Automatic annotation (TrEMBL):
Pfam families: YgjP-like. Residues 1-27 are annotated as: Disordered. It comes from the Bacteria. Residues 80-169 form the YgjP-like metallopeptidase domain. Gene3D superfamilies: Metalloproteases ('zincins'), catalytic domain. This is M48 family metallopeptidase. InterPro entries: UTP_pyrophosphatase-like (IPR053136), YgjP-like_metallopeptidase (IPR002725).
Amino acid sequence: MPADHHPSPLSGPSRDAGASAIEVRRSSRRRRTVSAYREGDRTVVLIPARMSEAEERRWVGVMLDKLAAQESRRRPGDSELAERAARLSAQYLGGRARPATVRWVTNQNTRWGSCTPAEGSIRLSHRLRGMPEYVVDYVLLHELAHLLVPGHGPDFWRLLEAYPRTERARGFLEGVVAAGRLPGPPDDGGE
C-alpha cells in the first residue's frame, strides 16, 4: 500500500458487503473528493484521511449506490436485452429476426452467444456484461442473423455487413480471448 494510504477503521483489510468486499483507503493527499472502483471481487473506496468514521460510513454507502447504478446501466437485464434485440433487428435486419426469448446465461464459457432457431431463443454469455455496447450489440445481431440464416456462409455475413462496427467488435472479442490465453506478468516478489 502506498505510504500516504492508510487503512480505514471500516475496512480492516476489507469488510464484506454482500457479494464483494469493501476496502476503504484513506489518503492524506486527497482533500475533498471521494471515489470508488471495482477491483476484481472487491470495491475500493478512496477518501480523505481527515474524514470522520461517520462520514466514511455515509460516503461508502453513497459510492456503493453510485457504482451499482452505473453497473445496472452497463449491464442490462433480460427485458432490456429483448428490447435491444428488437431495435437491432429493426435497424439492421428489416425487423425480420423476431426472437421468442433473449436472455443472459451463465453456462456459456466458450461461446459469446448462441441461438436455437427452432425455438427462437437467443442466449448471451454473462461474460459480455460490462463490455462496450457495440460489442454486445454485435453479438446480439450475430445471433439474430442466425434466426434468419443458419451457419456462417456468405448469406449470413451479408446480413452483418450493415452493422458498421462488425470488424471492430470481432477484433475486441478476439483480443479478449487472446488476453485470456496469455500468462500473467512474472511475479517479482515485491512492488
